[in-house]
Amino acid sequence: MRKENDRPLHENRVDQPFATLNRFHILVHVSVTLAVLYYRVSRLPLLLQLSFTTLAWILLIGSELLLFFLWILAQAYRWRPISRTVFPERLPEDGSLPPIDVFIVTADPDKEPTVEVMNTLISIMSLDYPTSKLHVYLSDDGGSPITLSATRLAYDFARSWVPFCRRYKIETRYPAAYFSGSNVESVGSPEFQEERQRIKLLYESFKKNVEKEKDKTKSTQVMTKRVQDQPSCIEIIKGDQEMSTSFEKQAEIPLLVYVSREKRKNHPHHFKAGALNVLLRISGIISNSPYILVLDCDMYTNNPASVRQAMCFHLDPHLSPSLAFVQFPQNFHNISKNDIYCAELRSVFEIQWKGCDGLKGPILSGTGFYIKRNALYGARPGQKSTREGFNSTEIAELKQSFGSSNEFIASFLHNRRNDLDNRATTYACSQEATLLASCTYEIDTQWGEQMGFLYGSVVEDYFTGFHLHCRGWNSAYYIPPSPAFLGSVPTSFSDTLIQRKRWMYGLLEVGFSRFCPLTFGISSATCMLQNMCYAWQAFQPLDSFSLLCYGIIPQLCFLNGISLFPEVSSPWFAAFVAVHLSSLSQHLREVLYSKGSLRTWWNELRFWMIISVTAHLFACLNIIMKLVGMKGVINFDLTNKAVRETQIQMYENGIFDFEGTSLLLIPLTTLSILNVATLIGGGCRVIVQKSLHDLFGQLYISCFILLISYPVLEGIIIRRDKGRVPTSITLWSIMLTVILLLLFG
Ligand SMILES: O=c1ccn([C@@H]2O[C@H](COP(=O)(O)OP(=O)(O)O[C@H]3O[C@H](CO)[C@@H](O)[C@H](O)[C@H]3O)[C@@H](O)[C@H]2O)c(=O)[nH]1
Ligand SMILES: [Mn+2]
Predict the structure, then answer these.
(1) How far is the CA of 487 from the centre of ligand 2 (A)?
(2) How many angstroms separate the CA atoms of 693 and 414, rounded?
(3) Read out DSSP for 199-249?
(4) Would you say 296 is a known binding-site residue?
(5) Is the CB of 503 under 6 A from ligand 1?
(6) Other C-beta atoms within 10 Å of 660: how many?
(7) Considering only CA atoms, which residue is closest to atom 31 of ligand 1?
(8) Are 272 and 55 in contact (CB under 8 A)?
(9) What is the band of 641 on the pLDDT scale with cuts at 50, 70, 90?
């Protein structure tokens, strides 16, 4: 019989029959697409004399080839999707569990409301794990006094909250959600009731005090715009000893460290990746845990069991030596029922990451992952994480990679793992910590290039994870029965556009660098399919070219009576229909498989087209500008987490909020208007000339786009509220449409 601790901590299985259906679908789709491409190419020579038609034809072939190329890359996700199960009850007892450091990053108390960030912090401190093995680090990139004082207040509240949650096994550990009234008030013993009431009052007063601090800082005008020039500040949060009851004094709660790194105007700070690397170093000389959980400031703990679930992978002796990180899906608490901006990222977290998981593992997703510290230090799989000692040449080499701090390098030594309390108090405020958090520390080191989170792209998560996979590491993806973490999504169209543009730009930065996933790492990683997954991410914004062509050319040709598709009775027409139906049905099948509805399917289809000709297009333009040496760099503009009431209402009701969308919207509105104009003009011609037979394909495309762009047209023509399309944008778009019609009409 096998011993208890020999039983596996996790299991996985290939998603069947989904995977087989996928492979069958690939076969069908490739066949019909090849037919279409054959038709296009074989007709090309016949057209060589007619210039406008030829150009149109060539652009359409280009668009179709590009879409086909992206589609092929995306099939790597469909090849071998897997699902995982864990058995946390089989983990070793608490005493033998490894310590964990948690990194939470925040940057701006205006865009990231302090009370919510503190709620996140408190929920993380109450994770279901031995408190002495949990160390929480909060990075405040804004260096704002309000965040520091709120952190102290949060710590005081956590001293009551954490023991309360543990004693009564509270499931909801995000105080704001727990007290939001959705919980049944009257269940539980009288003793519990009383305790709950007491904690609730403490929570209310905690919130009030944070607001008070906010007012205070506002009135003394310390709260400026995001400070770019600030000294470092590192503090071990101790809390107010006098305020707590004797029970809470004894109760252990996780170590909490506040870190605000030094920032100077003429030193690049590398945004979130830079902040995480500072935490990596500071935590290295304090708690130095072998595993790290990274969270954005809005990603609170919804299910305190995630640590143990992650440990089921990290502590598996077979998997562990090559496992760099365990990624949890990003789930969100403020998604509306009719998610018009597709913020849920269903395809990513329900389809794509599962697909990668059957290869080398999910792509690092910025937040909600448990990563091995050693993997971030540039180690290769299986390399020992700690050493017994170094000789002087080794020390010199290490300093070249990791910078000059002796303390930090000593943290690699085996015998440095004990004595946390002492180290915490000694080092937190020491010169060493100040050195490690200084803006010059990384100069001439390999931080951001080989070590820690990498700086080469604004999507530091994707880029860092890609390097880990190329170095031979694997990752695991686990979707727990109830979401481990919940974050917030942008709820206006303009915020969505800014976020997507930043992501797409960051991905293109990697795609068009020497780290292009189609070439880089192919030799070492030996997993072609995994690299295809990375390549699809990197090149997905290129679909903007295809969609732009498909939004202009068939329409202009329709207006001019030029046919671009085979006539309805031709068998070639059937090939086009088959490709169209095949891609729609593949998408629909996946949506239904991941428990979406028809409406989800339609919303995603519409959103893809909308985002492609806006955010994707501008990301491409920016990257071209950057590549040719013009200024086109996109910075890490924070996603707004503080929202207006009207904005939420529109989002809840499924109405597009175009307020503040600026230039980014122009291609979309122009295409919508152009489509209407050509549909009317071309429609009249079809009736007069009775040419429907030849132009049916284009008529169909125009009608389809009309349906897709309905919310945009409504925002231009019908709506009168604040969220309508800004008049200036409408005027610009009309002008551009007129120009296009004059040129080609
Ligand atoms: O200079 C900066 C900029 C951002 N952040 C923090 O980074 C986190 C993510 O920023 P957010 O504005 O929420 O960006 P999102 O686009 O929502 O983030 C997604 O995309 C990022 C990559 O672009 C990933 O890093 C994130 O984990 C992922 O949630 C937040 O906690 C910020 O406070 C910093 O600490 N310093
Ligand atoms: Mn975010």
Answers:
(1) 7
(2) 78
(3) HHHHHHHHHHHHHHHHHHHHHTT---SSPSSB--EEEE----GGGS-HHHH
(4) yes
(5) yes
(6) 16
(7) 296
(8) no
(9) confident
Residue 669: partners with Cβ closer than 8 Å, 6 or more residues away: 712, 716, 725, 729, 730, 732, 733
Judge contact between 564 and 7, C-beta under 8 A. Answer: no
Could you tell me the distance, in angstroms and rounded to a whole number, from the CA of residue 196 to the centre of ligand 1? Answer: 34
CB contact at 8 A, 376 and 280: yes
Q: What SS3 state is found at 185?
A: coil
> Is the ipTM above a cut-off of 0.95?
yes
Instruction: For 451-476, give the DSSP string.
Output: BSS--SSS-HHHHHHHHHHHTT-EEE
CATH architecture of 98-500: Alpha-Beta Complex (3.90)
Band the pLDDT of 629: cuts 50, 70, 90: confident
Tell whether 399 is in a known binding site. Answer: no
Determine if ligand 1 sits within 6 Å of the CB of residue 278.
no
Q: What whole-number distance in Å separates Cα of residue 393 and Cα of residue 399? A: 10
What is the mean pLDDT of the segment spanning 208-214?
A: 91
Q: Which atom of ligand 1 is nearest to the CA of 489?
A: 17
171 is in an annotated binding site: no
Q: What is the DSSP track for 647-689?
A: HHHHHHTT----TT-GGGGHHHHHHHHHHHHHHHHHHHHHHHH
**Local structure of 341: helix, strand or coil:** coil
Rounded to 5 degrees, what are φ and ψ at 228? -110, 0
Task: Render 535-597 in DSSP notation, one character per residue.
Answer: HHHHHGGGHHHHHHHHHHHHHHHHHHT---S--TTSHHHHHHHHHHHHHHHHHHHHHHHTT--
Catalytic residue list:
141, 461
CA distance 325 to 97: 17
Element (H, E) at 422: helix 420-428
Ligand 1 within 6 A of CB of 461: yes
Residue nearest to atom 2 of ligand 1 (CA): 271
Q: Which residue has the tokens 């607001």?
A: 211
Which among 299, 508, 638 is the best mutation to test ligand 1's pocket, defined by most ligand atoms within 8 Å of the CB? 638
- List Cα–Cα distances, 683 to 299, 489, 559, 675, in angstroms: 51, 41, 8, 11
Identify whether the C-beta of residue 160 lies closer than 8 Å to the C-beta of residue 248. yes
640 alpha carbon – ligand 1 mean position (Å): 10
With a 6 Å cutoff on the Cβ, whether 107 touches ligand 1 is yes
Q: 486 — phi, psi (to 5°)?
A: -125, 130
Which of 270, 272, 367 is the pocket-test mutation for ligand 1 (most atoms within 8 Å of CB)?
272
CA distance linking residue 117 with residue 146, whole number of Å: 12
Q: Which residue has the tokens 């729609």?
A: 584
d(CA 281, CA 404): 12
Distance 636 CA to ligand 2 centre (A): 11
Which of 174-183, 381-390, 412-421, 714-723 ranks highest by mean pLDDT?
A: 714-723
Mean pLDDT (the chain) is 90
CB burial readout 244-258, b (16+ within 10 A) else e: eeeebeebebbbbbb
